[in-house]
Amino acid sequence: MTPKKEIWSDVERIRAGAPLVHNITNYVVMNSSANALLALGASPVMAHAVQEVEEMVAIASALVINIGTLSGHWIQAMFVAARAAKRRGIPIVLDPVGAGATRFRTDTCIALLNEAPATIIRGNASEIRALALAEGATKGVDSRHSAEDAIGAAQLLAKTFGSVVSISGAIDIIVGGKRTISIANGHPLMPRVTGLGCTASALTGAFAAVNPAAAKAAAHAMAVMGIAGELAAERAAGPGSLQVYFLDALYSLSYEDLSARLRWEES
Amino acid sequence: MTPKKEIWSDVERIRAGAPLVHNITNYVVMNSSANALLALGASPVMAHAVQEVEEMVAIASALVINIGTLSGHWIQAMFVAARAAKRRGIPIVLDPVGAGATRFRTDTCIALLNEAPATIIRGNASEIRALALAEGATKGVDSRHSAEDAIGAAQLLAKTFGSVVSISGAIDIIVGGKRTISIANGHPLMPRVTGLGCTASALTGAFAAVNPAAAKAAAHAMAVMGIAGELAAERAAGPGSLQVYFLDALYSLSYEDLSARLRWEES
Amino acid sequence: MTPKKEIWSDVERIRAGAPLVHNITNYVVMNSSANALLALGASPVMAHAVQEVEEMVAIASALVINIGTLSGHWIQAMFVAARAAKRRGIPIVLDPVGAGATRFRTDTCIALLNEAPATIIRGNASEIRALALAEGATKGVDSRHSAEDAIGAAQLLAKTFGSVVSISGAIDIIVGGKRTISIANGHPLMPRVTGLGCTASALTGAFAAVNPAAAKAAAHAMAVMGIAGELAAERAAGPGSLQVYFLDALYSLSYEDLSARLRWEES
Lengths: 267, 267, 267
Description:
The structure is a homotrimer. The first copy, chain A, is of the alpha/beta class. Chain A is built from 11 helices and 9 strands. Chain A is globular. Chains in contact: A-B, A-C, B-C. Chains A and B meet through helix 2, strand 2, helix 3 and helix 10 of A and helix 5 and helix 10 of B.
């Protein structure tokens, strides 16, 4: 199958099966992530109490952990949930929001990865580099990174934890095993909406729920994100309307949209 | 008065009096619930600290408890607030989000209902059945329920706790005392927006604040929800714009809209 | 420079420099505050864990503390962050949401102000009066206040804590040192959107990050808020679309918009 047919097959499986995606995510994006999952066709659930995360993982098809507004008792639940997901064999997506900005965030991610390695780590270049630095990579000199600048860091994380690493940027790059996929979809207005990176992680969970090939699932999610963003940007007058139309576009995405717009390269 | 005149009378009382509705609700829907209450004409307040919930209940006209993202210290505050509401005699609306999905959720709802029975329990068919099962009802066999399938469960809860039970679905059904009301308003796109069920509970609080007849208050809220959803769906291109236009429709709802669209049956 | 040139200079500095604004804010408005900061051109971060707030303050250009959904462990983080901001000399904006509604809120604000006085206190008339009452002001008799009614209260707070006080209302009034600025921009639909007051506080943080003259920064933020609200209201059909278009207007605000609409008085 061509990439566009494979992506579309995943979209159809999500729409038909409405896989339950369990999110332990940050306060800022809970609403927008849940709406994006629903618009795509998945079923979101948000639950973070240590008393229930294990039961919730038991009925979920994927677990998404996002550390955007971390605090102590949430970390405990993240560990319990991640261990339960590993035991059940469902995919885990980790979004290391703000890794590198504080040691608390970096250390929590590394501890989670050591305890129950994520199937897919999805972050921006700065976050991916911060995690790689914590694992012994040599520090680069530039402070504003493109996804391309973080490929080395992603390869180190992929090797250390056996994870696929999905780096978002103007061009998204997915590093997994021997494969590197780059996706040039998206729109410059997207970073002006809060939490679209977190939405990408939530959607990655939905694709991973229906596609066991993790690198492909990660890439399919970024392609659908980017294309929905392009469609939304054509109607939008700014970031407020972009967010609204982005959900509309996810909901009504067609194979024709996908086919006409996909910019996918593989090496 | 006819149902449409009674509903409109409540809407006018909410718009004129802006009753304060105290919400202890989940993180996902705090923003959308507050916006829906404001659009309708009520005054929302969100407060969950055990140090202040009693004082907040003391100035509120209704209390809405929603367990969507439960954790330990929030439960404590829910109990304090519910007891204070009972003492003051203001209505309590309980939304048992996800009851049945985990024991933690089911048990918390039952404990709350035993301590300070809700005036109105508002959930979907699956949640209402889960609560009834926990109270000894016989388990049904189907896993996807319509509101009609949960009428027996609602009657058991109504009898056990003296609550009105409002079941949302394609057709909403309100069970209270000897009365059963069904409302056939709404639109299939509504479940694709996160938290519209939680919004229904928040609006139920606003109607209960101005109307002491709890079954009517619950039904009026569902009718207004459904009609605002229909109006929004006529303009919407998907779930993103539906949510935006839903708030606009609540704000500008007229007696003519209500009168032309209401689909209400009583038995 | 005229006020409009000074405001525009701040807007350009925010757009060029994307100052990092650290928010410890309430659950209801985290998403909308972050989106408003991004639309204006600033960089938002939300972080509240006591383990990381000090490090986050160390890389931020302003700290915004908002007590809208307060609880115990958040207060501890607010104190740590406020002390760190004082040591670094970055501006602190305090939004005393609901001060006066419960003692818990009033007392927390006064304790924070005593520990690390805010550069700018931004609230509505009722909140500003509640804080002044707690500091010994004589109670007024009216319960619905305009910003003008709170000028005396603001002057007392300004004198006690050395803070600029920014009172939002149909006319916004900024009291600071010898200067009083009033701004008559805005639209009556704005209070029907939840959290626009909190958004005003977040934007005040962005302006304070680029302008050390705190009274001017506070006034510039309110002017831009009000004008963006007016632009949005011209397109909006209700509070749902107002919120969307408000973000679009912040993003695309031009000097011409500002210049044509600014209603600024100084005494």
